[in-house]
Amino acid sequence: MAPPEPPPPSAPAKRKAARDPRKTGAAAPANREAKPSEIVAPPVAPPPIPPPILAAPVAGIGAQAASGAAPVEGPGTGGGGQGEGTGSGGFGNGQGSRGQGTFAEQISGRIYDRDYPKAAARAGIGGTVWVRYTVTPKGRAQDCRVTRSSGTAEIDAVTCALIEKRFRYRPGTDAAGRKVSSVVEEDHHWEVTRDFGGEGDQPPER
């Protein structure tokens, strides 16, 4: 008896196509809207508070009339007759000690007729020269300056030169008795006299 015939080969199974999970024709989800981050400026630090300016507790020693031992009234801090500063004036609203300073006092030094510049004397030229100079705590005159000319440069120069060379002072003091610089302002009058150059010359009028 013949064996049975084998069954015919089966047809290969058909693969189903994978379906797109997205529905056909459906709208895409909305995009997210980008928002910028907020920028905040850092806080500004307040400016530093400047330190207070401390005033000097006592009047200083100076060469000017406002800070030296001036003999006139004024609002400065020196030893004037009256003032509103903190110094040693006779009267004041400050906190300094009440007292009276002294002004520089001339003790030696003169300008004579024989000191008259010869060229100016021969020409009969005279005049008045106004000067300003400093009396140091050592009593010497220095830094002489002409504030108003006599009109003759030679007379102006001789006047200052003789002042610095000859004039000596008892220096001024403040209320505490300390020697201070003082400023002197004065005028010197030059006039040719008949006995010019003779014996016994007198100092010209100042």
Characterize this entry briefly:
The chain is mainly beta and 206 residues long. It has a domain at 105-190: TonB (TolA/TonB C-terminal domain, 2-Layer Sandwich). The protein is built from 2 helices and 7 strands.
Overview of the structural elements:
With 206 residues, the chain is mainly beta. It has a domain at 105-190: TolA/TonB C-terminal domain, CATH 3.30.2420. The protein has two helices and seven strands. The protein has helices at residues 118-122, 153-166; strands at 105-108, 127-135, 141-148, 168-170, 172-173, 179-180, 182-190. Strands 3-2-7 form a three-stranded antiparallel β-sheet, covered by helices on one side. A two-stranded antiparallel ribbon has the order 1-4. Strands 5-6 form a two-stranded antiparallel sheet. The chain is rod-shaped and about 185 Å long. The protein starts with 104 loop residues before the first strand and ends in a 16-residue tail after the last strand.
Number of E strands: 7
**Which structural class should the secondary elements be placed in?**
mainly beta
Strand count, sense and barrel status of the largest sheet are: 3 strands, antiparallel
CATH topology-level name of one domain: TolA/TonB C-terminal domain
The assigned CATH architecture of one domain is 2-Layer Sandwich
By CATH reckoning, the class of one domain would read Alpha Beta
Which sequence of SSEs, written as H and E, runs from N to C?
Answer: EHEEHEEEE
Distance between the termini: 177 Å
Instruction: Quickly count the helices.
Output: 2
Q: What is the share of helical residues?
A: under 10%
Based on CA atoms alone, the radius of gyration comes out at: 51 Å
Shape: rod-shaped
Strand content: 15-25%
CATH homologous superfamily identity of one domain: TonB
Q: Give the overall average pLDDT.
A: 73
Major sheet strand order: 3-2-7
Runs with pLDDT <50, length 5+? 63-68, 78-98, 197-203
